[in-house]
């Protein structure tokens, strides 16, 4: 059944979702902070998602008053979400965040920010999916998390397409933290590969990384099974194993003493710093990523430190 959908944020992911939902027959309005008129005229987001032509049914606007659908997807980087929601009156009754991070100013995840700043029902769309894969119509499975299962079921049906299969959960904390924390591990995986430690070391890091992710998430109230679902393990496998991931590429560059452009959204960097401050010793991989990114340690030193910790039972 076709519906009207608003998508807020015309980065790579918002644009990819707008393309796929318009292709599936929905009437989509994509809001862009900058360059809306050019995108609408050229029928392409040349800057963030080049090579994917907009289908009919996708309209780009820079005017917030054009956002009138009852359901809106928020595809903004986590660190910009709080200020955006605080300063922008939105009429949608349901707001679904696609961001994967923790807001460093408040320690909240995206649904916590939605609940703090709006009266809309918050939900989270997360899981393994590169924007370019979604835009190309490749088969993808994601998690739709909403604390209210009836709303979740409606959204699951509305937002699934022939190429995009949604599973649903009421464990919003688990889904949200899985998406945020896997980015931190992906930076570490990039550093492991960049330093030349090899695939066996990456497998060890991913496995121990998942243990760290699960420990924090369960402490915060998540169900541990959520962390082995699409939003946790699924996304961990994708981003730790592919250089399409910006977090992975960032770690790769760090280990090689290089930098990436300033304009890239590296969610795991902010999340690593926040987690390192909040959990410290309990989260050795996240603390190591923060130390590496902030120039307080190099990869060899971190590897030695991680390997020389007291031996433990698995
Ligand atoms: N790119 C991908 O493959 C995927 C991204 N995500 C998540 O989606 C979120 C957005 O990522 P991308 O679209 O990839 O980022 P991006 O870097 O491609 O684009 C970010 C967009 O946000 C806009 N923006 C930044 N600050 C803003 C503000 N204050 N107000 C309004 N707009 C603002 C920028 O103009 C830009 O269009 C992130 O949390 C990311 O983890 C999730 C799944 C896949
Ligand atoms: O979350 C993603 C894939 O699921 C995108 O990962 P990056 O932000 O590392 O590119």
TrEMBL record:
Which terms in the GO cellular component ontology are assigned?
A: cytosol
Annotated pathway: Membrane lipid metabolism; glycerophospholipid metabolism
Q: Report the main location listed first in the record.
A: cytoplasm
Reactions catalysed, as given in the entry: sn-glycerol 3-phosphate + NAD(+) = dihydroxyacetone phosphate + NADH + H(+); sn-glycerol 3-phosphate + NADP(+) = dihydroxyacetone phosphate + NADPH + H(+)
Q: Name one Pfam family in it.
A: NAD_Gly3P_dh_C
| Recorded coiled-coil stretches | none
Its GO biological process annotations read: carbohydrate metabolic process; glycerol-3-phosphate biosynthetic process; glycerol-3-phosphate catabolic process; glycerophospholipid metabolic process; phospholipid biosynthetic process
Q: Which residues form the active site?
A: 182 (proton acceptor)
| Alphabetically ordered keywords of this record | Cytoplasm, Lipid biosynthesis, Lipid metabolism, NAD, NADP, Nucleotide-binding, Oxidoreductase, Phospholipid biosynthesis, Phospholipid metabolism
Record-annotated residues binding NADPH?
13, 33, 100, 131, 246
- Positions binding sn-glycerol 3-phosphate in this chain are 100, 127, 129, 182, 235, 245-247
Q: Where in the cell is it found?
A: Cytoplasm
Q: What is its EC number?
A: 1.1.1.94
Binding site residues for NAD(+): 9-14, 131, 246
GO molecular function terms listed in the Swiss-Prot or TrEMBL record:
glycerol-3-phosphate dehydrogenase (NAD+) activity; glycerol-3-phosphate dehydrogenase (NADP+) activity; NAD binding
InterPro entries in the cross-refs:
6-PGluconate_DH-like_C_sf (IPR008927), 6PGD_dom2 (IPR013328), G3P_DH_NAD-dep (IPR006168), G3P_DH_NAD-dep_C (IPR006109), G3P_DH_NAD-dep_N (IPR011128), NAD(P)-bd_dom_sf (IPR036291)
- Where does the chain bind substrate? 100, 246-247
Q: Which HAMAP family does this entry report, sorted A to Z?
A: NAD_Glyc3P_dehydrog
Which NCBIfam families does the protein's record reference?
A: PRK00094.1-2, PRK00094.1-4
Job description of the protein: Catalyzes the reduction of the glycolytic intermediate dihydroxyacetone phosphate (DHAP) to sn-glycerol 3-phosphate (G3P), the key precursor for phospholipid synthesis.
Family assignment from sequence similarity: Belongs to the NAD-dependent glycerol-3-phosphate dehydrogenase family.
- This protein's name: Glycerol-3-phosphate dehydrogenase [NAD(P)+]
Q: What is the gene called?
A: gpsA
